[in-house]
């Protein structure tokens, strides 16, 4: 199950319920220490020097306990209760260039501004440029509001415990949180809190997609129509089609503009390619339709835009719309039971809402809800850091995978193609939210694997990797 995004008070209630049910705090701390140690080892490397900064709260206890599980590495624990006394010692250790700093200074209970001495210590830690693993929350960050309390640690990774805290998902917190990871199983009872925001976990996709039957044939896995590519933007069509193949629908046909037919067709083998014609009737025999990647040329026929609106309004099959085609969508609602998906980045979302990208980023869940409402309760994948998946009502899922290196031209085309390839399969249409969350997670997980393997990967590599992550 996804982890609910919770407030500090909800986290406290969860802990109280766990102690009442018989959970033992010392055992929880020991388990957290193991989890922190495992992540610290991965970040520091086999011979890395780890500096642990432990405050007097539970976060400090978690950080101290991690040392017990790192006996084979050089680990130096620093007890930090008085920042003025601790700063000279910490400075000496920082001059030895630790591979990793484990930040256990403050926890989620901090709700007051830090004094000048704590601020000076935190600034010194940030200036070290070492990797930082923050336990539960970056020290100095308000876990409810996402605002620094005068200063906050700028973590490389924040390993939050149990469930994400709501402030960590706010744009103000992103420079401090770094990569947000969740340790859901720390020895507490099942979380009693619920809410509209939920954090996806790799475990959510266990046994998904379902195993294919041995007697199946390509007719069982759907036909996908893609309308993509125009003069100057033919590469988007190729990326989209190749990514759709990674989802393994039965058949894919790419309809592209005549001006780019030859370069597009010459780069594809199993995908059928044809010139888009105004007489094309969609969905026809197709089980899903994708429109938009690479349709940015100024000389596109008006019939194409009209066809997009028609298929959006009338198709019984799932329709995915991306990129420039987002601007062609009608305000009239599609059939209530129809699956409709759009994949805007913040700039495209701003155009749909007639506002600014900054306004979208300031309240991403609200932007998602409003776009979906305006477009007939369609599914919206609001891309960017912590991509959101949802619609005007119901759950909003926050994607847990991916990294900033996805910010490359063509990354969105890969995502759109992969999602459409999944939705073309009849067996994956019953639960659109799960299918969309899975597709977005695989997209990010592919980028994570690539970034671990090498730092100079390109979008073409993403096409090769997407869909290859194995769920627990």
Description:
The protein is an alpha/beta fold and about 475 residues long. It has 2 domains: about 5-195, Rossmann fold (3-Layer(aba) Sandwich), CATH 3.40.50; about 220-465, UDP-N-acetylmuramoyl-L-alanine:D-glutamate ligase, CATH 3.40.1190.20. It has helices at about 10-20, 25-45, 60-65, 85-95, 115-125, 175, 235-245, 260-265, 300-315, 345-355, 355-360, 365-375, 410-425, 430-455, 460-465, and strands at about 5, 50-55, 75-80, 100-105, 130-135, 155-160, 180-185, 195-200, 225, 250-255, 270-275, 290, 320, 340, 380, 390, 395-400. The strands form 2 sheets. An 11-stranded mixed beta sheet has the order 1-8-17-16-15-14-13-12-9-10-11, sandwiched between helices. The chain is elongated, with a radius of gyration of 24 Å.
Question: Quick summary of this structure?
Answer:
The protein is of the alpha/beta class. The chain is built from 15 helices and 17 strands.
Uncertain stretches: none
Q: Order of strands across the biggest sheet? A: 1-8-17-16-15-14-13-12-9-10-11
Number of domains: 2
Major pleated sheet: 11 strands, mixed
Descriptive keywords:
alpha/beta; Rossmann fold; 11-stranded mixed beta sheet; 6-stranded parallel beta sheet
Topology, element by element:
Blueprint: E1 3-4, H1 8-20, H2 25-44, E2 49-54, H3 58-67, E3 74-79, H4 83-94, E4 100-104, H5 116-127, E5 131-135, E6 157-161, H6 174-177, E7 179-183, E8 197-199, E9 223-227, H7 234-246, E10 251-256, H8 261-265, E11 272-275, E12 288-291, H9 302-314, E13 319-321, E14 340-342, H10 346-353, H11 357-362, H12 364-374, E15 379-382, E16 388-390, E17 396-398, H13 411-423, H14 432-453, H15 459-465
Parallel strand pairs: 2-3, 2-4, 4-5, 5-6, 6-7, 8-17, 9-10, 9-12, 10-11, 12-13, 13-14, 14-15
Antiparallel strand pairs: 1-8, 15-16, 16-17
